[in-house]
Amino acid sequence: MTAATAPTGSLARGVPLSTRLTGFWSVFRLAARRDRILVPASVLGLVLFSVGSAQATLALYPTDAAASSGLATVITNPSIVAMYGPVPAQTADAFAVLKTVMLGAFLTSVLALVVVRRHTRTEEDEGRLELLGSGVVGRWAPLTAATALAAAAVVLAAVLSGAGLAALGMDQAGSASFAVAWLTAGLATVGVSAVVVQLASTTRGAAGLGFGFLGAMYALRAMADSADPGTVTHALGWLSPLGWAGRVEAYGADRQWVLLLGVIALLGGLAVALAVLDRRDLGAGVIPARSGPRRAGRLLAGPGSLVVRQARGTIVGWGVGMVLGGVLVGSLLGAVGQMASDPGIRDVLESLGGTIGTLEDVYVATEIHFVAAAVAAAGIALVLRLVGAERSGLGEVVLATPTGRTRWFAAHVGLPVVLSAVLMALLGAVVGLVGPTVTPDAPGFDPSLAATVAALPAVWLVIGVAALLAGALPRFAPLTWGVLLVTFVVAEVGPLADLPGWLLDLSPFSHLSPLPAGAFEPLPAVVMTLVAAVLCGAGALAYRRRDVA
Amino acid sequence: MTDAITVSGLRKTFGRTVALDGLDLAVREGEVHGFLGPNGAGKSTTIRVLLGLLRADAGTATVLGRDPWRDATDLHRLLAYVPGDVVLWPSLSGGETIDLLGRLRGGVDEARRRRLVERFELDETKKGKAYSKGNRQKVALVAALASDVPLLVLDEPTAGLDPLMEEVFQSELTALRDDGRTVLLSSHILSEVERACDRVSIVRAGRIVDSGSLAELRHLTRTRVRAVLARPVDPATARAWPGVHDVTVDGAEVRCSVEADHLGALVADLGGRGVTGLTVQPPTLEELFLARYQGTDADTAEREAQPA
């Protein structure tokens, strides 16, 4: 028997496809069952985002003429293009999806990454895949099932959004192209995620690689899209899956063939991932786990330093991100200034976010809102580590030492509160330093710093919600993600969509002062900060009173 | 001797599941107390109440004179805990984890830490994620054993250890007892408890079904006797011996079990029949345990322990 003499590793390569995929449907059903809330809710949110935003914009700019006057100079403005991607045509339809094509493609990609990671590296990291893999389950089944589920989520979000836009009476081919834009980015990210979860050997490492990739791709296409067509820099945009989404040019050129790139990236990524999977051990990655020091440094001595140490990568990553983001925002201020003082542009910018001041100010204010939401998301993730520690059993280990519950809770909530302040201040400082070197009209150091710091109360309020839920009802703490998404979308889209005032008032992001141009309104800031403090305090009290484990 | 841990009438329910149903427990100061029971009997729940992680629905618990729920922080200065399912921080090395836990508890004995790392043959440089179950257990054990506290709470501490390391653990446990420290050792590994513990409590479905020293518990259970006789006994006579059960006679050989109080009389009777071979086997902890689990009758335990 030749098979008996071959080493077992090479034996695996001769295994037929059907055997490698044994159990695919069982694993797929298990994954779908576990995501029965996450996937439908995310898809629904994305569809509401695209269709709701389009409907609101169409109400404001119903005709091509109205849209074209608004869009006339936007098309040439690199800062808008950097944010939202190329503007395909001066029509009402194109204007209606200006905000959602790129942002939605990004969010769809995030969903794809989250779903793939959840059912692959996370399962492996926590030892559940070992249990599953010892059953009658082919080696390829878990990865292919996760990939299939993520692809299905992407297809649903994209196709339903496209159908919804067509149902609004928008151009049929354009609506199909819109779906193609999201599909292309989403499917490509599914492929990339499949590789990423093979490379990193931990859940957190996979998240770092994956989100880092998406951030880099967004930055790459922002740079490429704001360059002149025909230049090498502009051509670089074809290297980014998010660049592809913009270059479909829905409601303009309608390049639906771009979808091929997404499908190729998906299949190519999956092929690479499966090849790596066949060559690695369960639990291992390509990037090996390093060994650590024999003794702990003097700083690692209490709950606070432990929490900070665990978040080291997050802290450094966000710090670097803020500096890079600040440089990007600051350097684009020059382009904003080159625009004519056309009242049409003002309308557009105001509808996109800000309200008062020079174009530079409005632009900075808009960017700050986005960054504040992102920083709040980082804050939620840090607070949720309290719940994660409780679930894994690490909380029990610490709480069985003289570390009191209040200190343990405070360490997890205090870090995001402080970190968010540092990050926002960092952004403001960098924008304030870089902007004035590009154009004298840019807000200076002090106004920029004040503007970013003034957004903190909204960030803290979101962190407070996470703290309350983590303290009182840990099972429901992940709902904070939904709270952030809804409040942010309400504040961004709400004024356009004629949402009722009380709904707008519920969103902390509606109450931010329109800095750097307008006046700082202390009352909402103070009230939001106090509410945030009360939420954190209530969370701490509840945490002292309940069972831990 | 005073009690280090006193528990009475402890109740804890999770939804409709009753985890503890009026549990009583007394652990004396300076003893190694075995806390025996199968999975799901309520051992870990009891320990979590004793650590102040869970709040009891009813009943009282006192640990080192303190209320574990109210004075948790204060109490935790005096104890070290090894959880049943040891998880470590994935990004911290074993050495860092030991130092961190030691510092959280207020310091470790450096010399003892070094000695324990050596004895358990622990590679301190590996990251938490890279350790096997047994090695994770060793990290937690070294951290707990190296700290200078009067009470150790160990929840199935040897579950992942190999026999050599179990031996090391046993000798460390003896050292702890000689040192006058109190240990609550939860386990379902009976040999471990049998060797190390002064007293045991057996928990079943959230209640203590028996508690005492091994000698006391043994007294309630029958001793097994196997004798080869020069003048065989006939089965009817043998069955009539007072306090003797489960008699089988197979030619010259007779096997039976006998209540502790009647052992002397039985041995005397056997002596009169010319004993050519004799084994007397006190009940193992397995038998004690099974006896309390399978019903009130030790017969059941015997059938379980030695299926025909």
From TrEMBL, chain A:
Signal peptide from the UniProt entry: none
Keywords, alphabetical: Membrane, Transmembrane, Transmembrane helix
Q: Which residues cross the membrane?
A: 37-61, 94-116, 137-159, 179-199, 206-224, 257-277, 315-336, 368-387, 408-435, 447-469, 481-503, 523-543
Protein name according to UniProt: Polyketide antibiotic transporter
| Organism the protein comes from | Phycicoccus sonneratiae
User: Source taxonomy lineage?
Assistant: Bacteria, Bacillati, Actinomycetota, Actinomycetes, Micrococcales
TrEMBL record, chain B:
Is Nucleotide-binding among this UniProt entry's keywords? yes
Q: What is the protein's membrane topology class?
A: Peripheral membrane protein
User: What residue ranges carry the coiled-coil annotation?
Assistant: none
Main localisation, per the record? Answer: membrane
Organism superkingdom: Bacteria
Q: Entry's SUPFAM superfamilies?
A: P-loop containing nucleoside triphosphate hydrolases
Question: What InterPro entries does the entry give?
Answer: AAA+_ATPase (IPR003593), ABC_transporter-like_ATP-bd (IPR003439), ABC_transporter-like_CS (IPR017871), ABC_transporter_ATP-binding (IPR050763), P-loop_NTPase (IPR027417)
Which intervals hold domain ABC transporter? 5-230
Localization, UniProt: Cell membrane
GO terms assigned for molecular function: ATP binding
Q: Does the keyword Transport apply?
A: yes
One Pfam match: ABC_tran
What keywords tag this UniProt record?
Answer: Antibiotic resistance, ATP-binding, Nucleotide-binding, Transport
**Would you identify the family this protein belongs to, as annotated?**
Belongs to the ABC transporter superfamily.
What is the name attached to this protein's record?
Answer: ABC transporter ATP-binding protein
Organism encoding this protein = Phycicoccus sonneratiae
